[in-house]
Design goal:
heterodimer, A: mainly alpha, 7 helices, 83% helix, B: mainly alpha
Chain lengths: 224, 246
């Protein structure tokens, strides 16, 4: 403590007290998980956007609904969210029409309900993990701050036993403690940025799905 | 059809990317930290260089001690090698007198020369080693002096702080004045003698400081086992009303 202390990164972490180290470990875990979800969501949302683009193009370029449905059944694994919504609506519509004894509005309502149910499920999938990112983004600065406050408390308590207080007695402890805040911010900033971005993208996708559902209902209503 | 994490085909690349981001961040942090830490170290070295200047009178005595080892190798070297050379020379003289066989002479001479050369080399080596030892010792002494200087400064600061705490500034004293006292201490920390070395111009303040010095007995001194009392026997302390007790 007395002589010149070499201040590099590793000793700052290893010399910290146990609660601070726990906080740092927690934050590292949160950061790793949030980055994992950031990349997972990035891939998932990009895929969803591409599939939606591809299906919209196929849908408006091809008036034969039955063939679109058969394509969906052939490649169920590669189907995107919008394609599944379409399939659910179309399957329900065909089933109700086969019964024959229902009037048109009841059939339309059934198809719309089926589409809405699938739409909710798809949105749930698209929005999965976003709450985790929001939590990391809002909570980890506080967790880091907790570690820092704890570390600084210890640093000042050590100061009480020293007659002549110098900055050299507290500085290492405070530096150790501040690492916790740095880690909290490191975990929080990307999580917040990613959350905002992905929330906006899923909202945009959801409005595309909704307008498609309306348009598809119209198409079904026009069916002979 | 739920996009659970366990089923997601992208979970491995995403995990690897997350690890990569962290590794990059920590690498950046590590290198920036090393880069940041250099300037403070340089400053530390500068401060240390100035400190030993005050201690030079003290480190000076040990230097002769250092020279002793240099002399010793010389003494060792001279008896062992030059005598051989002399003997060899005598041999050659004898040889020259007794036998006038030139090749033998030259052999003997060559031997003698070789031996002389070897002796010189050994001497040089020994000198070099001695110099290296001397330098190492000097360094060690300098470091010791630095540590000592630090301790001395620390305790002088403590002494001054303790006295300052006891100074009662007379009312209306000018803050910028400065009184210098030379204080003679006993190893117990008691004050043997207080002399006003340089008056502040304000007699009341001078006497207030003197009273404070006497009142602060015993003054804090480093532990006896550090053998540093010689540095504290005669102290010259400066006081100013501006620096009220901490």
């Amino acid at each position: 403590m007395e002589t010149s202390q070499s201040m590099s990164l590793l000793p700052l972490i290893t010399n910290a007290s146990l609660p601070v180290q726990l906080v740092m470990g927690l934050l590292l875990l949160a950061s790793l998980l949030s980055w994992w979800f950031i990349f997972l969501k990035m891939f998932a949302i990009r895929q969803a956007r591409e599939q939606t683009d591809a299906f919209e193009e196929a849908f408006w370029g091809n008036p034969d609904l039955a063939r679109l449905y058969r394509d969906f059944l052939d490649e169920r694994e590669n189907a995107g969210s919008l394609e599944r919504i379409f399939a659910a609506g179309y399957a329900e519509y065909v089933k109700l029409r086969k019964k024959g004894d229902m009037d048109n509005s009841a059939v339309m309502d059934g198809a719309r309900r089926a589409m809405r149910a699938t739409y909710q499920r798809e949105m749930d999938d698209l929005e999965s993990h976003l709450p985790f990112l929001a939590t990391v983004g809002s909570v980890s600065p506080y967790v880091g701050l907790l570690g820092t406050v704890w570390g600084i408390m210890n640093a000042f308590r050590g100061l009480a036993n020293v007659g002549q207080a110098t900055l050299a007695h507290v500085a290492p402890g405070i530096a150790e403690a501040l690492v916790a805040t740095a880690m909290g911010l490191f975990a929080a900033i990307p999580a917040v940025v990613a959350y905002n971005r992905y929330a906006a993208e899923t909202t945009r996708l959801s409005s595309r799905f909704e307008s498609f559902m309306e348009e598809f209902s119209n198409v079904l209503q026009r069916q002979p | 059809m739920r996009a659970e994490v366990s089923n997601d085909p992208n979970r491995l690349p995403a995990g690897l990317l997350a690890l990569l981001v962290h590794l990059l961040f920590f690498a950046a942090l590590f290198f920036s930290f090393n880069w940041q830490m250099k300037p403070p170290q340089g400053m530390v070295v500068e401060i240390w260089d100035t400190l030993p200047l005050n201690d030079e009178p003290q480190p000076a005595p040990p230097v002769p001690e250092v020279r002793e080892p240099i002399v010793k190798p010389k003494v060792e070297a001279t008896p062992s090698l030059p005598p051989k050379a002399e003997i060899a020379l005598r041999d050659t003289k004898k040889m020259a007198k007794e036998d006038r066989l030139k090749p033998e002479k030259t052999k003997a001479q060559l031997k003698a020369e070789k031996q002389a050369e070897q002796a010189e080399r050994r001497m040089e080596e020994l000198e070099k080693q001695a110099e290296a030892r001397q330098q190492a010792q000097r360094k060690a002494q300098e470091q010791a002096a630095i540590v000592m200087g630090k301790v001395v400064d620390e305790y002088i600061g403590k002494i001054a702080a303790k006295i300052r705490r006891n100074i009662v500034n007379p009312p209306g004293v000018v803050k910028t004045i400065r009184a210098e006292f030379s204080v003679t201490l006993l190893p117990s920390g008691e004050v043997l003698n207080v002399a006003l070395a340089k008056s502040s111009g304000n007699d009341v303040y001078d006497s207030a400081v003197e009273r404070a010095i006497l009142k602060s007995q015993p003054l804090p001194l480093p532990p006896a086992e550090q053998n540093m009392f010689s540095r504290f026997r005669d102290l010259r302390l400066k006081f100013s009303p501006a620096e009220i007790g901490q």
